[in-house]
Design a protein that fits this description.
Length: 140
């Protein structure tokens, strides 16, 4: 991994300390020219009562990785990013292991960005497909 990639991932993981992302054990693990990848363990901490991954935890993962990607691919010194809409389709359940969320840009406007976040299991099977709209607002 090159130094630039390592630095981006280090910053993403560092800013998660003391936040919900740390509570859910979300870790950023890869970044490319137009994507950001994170993983989250599937443990009882993120289960719904019947022992499968809670859809809300999946959505929290999706919004976390999509918002972080938006921050990375915009100038974070000039703008701050907020999620303004998220939609999720949960297509498969999972009880244990890890889920991986890959945020890819669909539209990069000056103000709004549209992200697709695919959440998969360790074998690459789709668990949830999410769409996140973010807004970049100028820092004053």
């Amino acid at each position: 991994m090159n130094e630039h990639k390592e630095k981006i991932l280090s910053v993403c993981n560092e800013i998660c300390k003391g936040t919900m992302m740390e509570t859910l054990d979300i870790t950023f693990i890869d970044v490319g020219e137009n994507f950001l990848l994170a993983k989250m363990p599937v443990t009882p901490k993120v289960h719904q009562p019947d022992g499968v991954l809670h859809g809300g935890a999946s959505v929290a993962l999706a919004e976390s990785v999509g918002s972080a990607a938006s921050y990375i691919f915009l100038d974070g010194k000039e703008f701050f990013v907020r999620g303004i809409e998220i939609a999720a389709n949960h297509v498969k359940s999972i009880r244990e292991g890890f889920v991986y969320a890959k945020a890819s840009i669909l539209h990069k406007g000056r103000t709004t960005q549209l992200w697709e976040i695919k959440i998969t299991d360790g074998e690459g099977q789709l668990i949830s497909n999410c769409k996140l709209t973010t807004i970049a607002l100028p820092r004053k």
